[in-house]
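Notes taken during the Thursday session

The instructor put the following on the board and asked us to keep it in front of us for the whole hour. The protein is D-arabinono-1,4-lactone oxidase. We were told not to look anything up and to reason only from what is written here. First, the residues (417 in total):
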Amino acid sequence: MIQTRPAGANWSGNHRYRAAETLLPADLDELATAISDAGSVRVQATRHTFNDVGDTDGALVSLERMPVAIDVAAEHVRVEGLVTFAQLAPVLEAEGRALHNLGSLPHISVAGATATGTHGSGVLNGNLSSAVTAVEIMDATGAIERFDRAHAWFPAAALSLGALGVVTAVELRTEPTYLVTAQVYTGISWEAIAGDPDRVLSCARSVSVFTTWGDPDDDLVWVKASDGDESDAVLRGLGGEPLRGPLHLGRIRTVNNTTALGTAGPWHTRLPHFRADALPSDGDEIQSEYFVPLASAREALTAVRAIAPSFTDQLLVSELRTVASDDLWLSPAFERDVLAVHFTWRNDTPGVREALPRVEAALAPFDVRPHWGKAFTLSGSDVRATLPRADDFSAVVRAADPDGVFRNAFLERTLGL
Ligand SMILES: Cc1cc2nc3c(=O)[nH]c(=O)nc-3n(C[C@H](O)[C@H](O)[C@H](O)COP(=O)(O)OP(=O)(O)OC[C@H]3O[C@@H](n4cnc5c(N)ncnc54)[C@H](O)[C@@H]3O)c2cc1C
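Then, after some discussion, the predicted structure tokens were revealed:
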């Protein structure tokens, strides 16, 4: 008998799962049984999404009771089961290895993050899906297939939204471990940031700009620098100074939960904003994020700033990051370097749903793509219009899952699946 628990809600509580229960298979045989018994299945991982991408009217499955494995090989690591970056990073570090980047928090699952194109920042850093070298996926018949870069379906399987089946293992590219020094700068004017976004966003290995689109006291630049980065000189040259006093991200008060500033430390202790041993962000929030070509950054920022008074009541903070281009068919950075324009909103669904179309209209001239795991109201046809390989992705999904066992309302709405 497969164990169950209540399905509950996502991390921030803005989405209550439609399924009443989550199935908790204990091994691959039970996982295959759970899939074959259900007409429709989605995986619930660490639940850090803000929409119904991971929901279903059928059965929810979690891998949380299944065995976990982390195998570090020469230049890659294979993780099996429900593994978070917080679990993975220290194991890699102990072997002298590292990932190229991390998102703002390490509490998320490797499978869930890579399934949705989760990213950190850095003009040379692709999103976390771009580090995938292979995935192993259980299909509706219970068979497991490995998709590596040589497989024709790899560009769909590495960032799949869970539409091909249950990802049982992920392999990621690694590199030798490295040190990072983080610093937060204040005093850089919006004109200096938006006038030449490339100058600020490319001054270090990873750069995040925080803003509330008006109050200069909320404009911060958080850099994560490698040896040789010239961020300190560049940002001081723009009037910046290292933060003195407590760190506030717009209207989010950090409470001894952020990573260290001013000293060098291993990559995984500096690249996320939030520490693995602390609760991240605000919690009582909804997030959205939009991706536009980096080449249009200046115009896109000007367009959002012009309409900001229409949404700032709902806003806790915005963050601007960069993601390097990749070749994954559903990636927000598919074949283009992008500026990521992020919004952390108050946890007020009606208010956020009013604000989103205004932001989306402002960014529409820039061929805007949404973050798959965050709130958006763009129509499916608008989303597909910006992704030249969306139809190829859908063809792979139909071939891999002919009965639509892993499809849901989100995939139907956004991809017409
Ligand atoms: C506080 C906070 C900070 C965040 N910071 C960032 C950030 O810095 N950058 C960024 O890009 N995003 C960020 N996000 C968004 C988040 O990282 C993504 O939405 C990510 O998808 C969450 O993964 P999850 O496993 O927690 O979510 P889940 O909702 O559990 O899973 C995500 C999706 O993947 C599918 N999935 C998960 N596991 C499997 C599997 N084994 N097989 C098949 N399908 C699977 C699920 O069905 C779902 O569709 C943040 C979210 C929060 C709450």
